[in-house]
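Figure S4 source data
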Amino acid sequence: MDAVSNVAAPLLAGFAVAAIGVVAADSDQFRWPGAVLLCLTLAALLFVTCVQFGFHARRHLYSPADITAWWSEEEARERHDLLREEHATDFQYWESWRRRAYAAYTGGMVVLWMGVSLVLLPPTPGSSPDTVFRWAAAAVAAGAAVVEAVWSTYPSIKRRLQRRRLLRGNP
């Protein structure tokens, strides 16, 4: 979680913002510069959102050893039940913010790959020698967006389907 929200997402947000500058400066070099700019802007926004969600998640994550370090032995004994309940509640908050950060990161990756795919399209229809290769590269990037979306959503969809089968009595 820390690697995603503190390293990968800020790095990818910076890349998306830099790419926005390139596309905005030379928009005539791209087939659909408006669509590229929209995808890259959404990607940057989602990556920054991931960082923010990760920040909110991190403040709710701590261990029982941390609690012991924060409170004296006597205070911890007196407040044992309250501290346990508070820790459990904070862990639920962490899990909620973690899921949001993961969703923002995944969404950012999907939209970034879509933007890359649009960047790779040949700027004009024609028969340039590299047109086939540019279309192939754009297809690979679009495929990466699809794979990212499927790969990221598959585990949760699988869990939901398994729960549904169990509730219906069909294991």
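Figure S5 source data
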Amino acid sequence: MKARVWVPLVVAVAVAVLVVVWRPGPVPPSRANPGTDPGVARQQLAELQVKPRGTLNGYSREKFPHWDTVEGTCNTREEMLKRAGTNVVVGTDCSPVSGTWVSPYDGATWTKASDVDIDHMVPLAQSWVSGASAWTQAQREAFANDLVRPQLWAVTDNVNQSKSDKAPDEWRPPLESFWCTYATDWIAVKHYYQLSVTTAEQAALTDMLNRC
């Protein structure tokens, strides 16, 4: 009689454990919500301080520690590759060994993680010249590893290299259908971190918002 009760109990506990272990993680804003509402973005843009872009004096990427370990042995880059891809398989070191990634900047599809970069929507250098130079190292580290705001994107590596540290008045994604999301998310990040925009940057963002 005890055995009949014990077996179902073990099965129930095992199922409960599996449910906890295999529960999907949080979906990043870049996939859960394709951009802030354009009306909200326009209001946020109007609230940003407009001023000339600062200088890069004193800037270095080392002042923005990035690819922190976020869970187990997984760092921020590896976590984003898992979140942004489809059917991603990772090795024991958390590095993706297979999967499919679609770059929102150009629409290209990749099956090798080495062909994909994790881009900062607002580049580190852009944040430096618009306010981050006055931040603490801890604040810059949080910005560089932000998995909550739409700050990190998995994109084609050479397209990311083309963007480099440019602002929207200097560079836009090749895929025009993504311009609306690009503008709303750039604004969302700058608004959250209270970074300034230039007049030219504001005009470029407004133009992209008008295409939403």
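Confidence is low (pLDDT under 50) at residues 1-34. Residues 29-209 form one domain.
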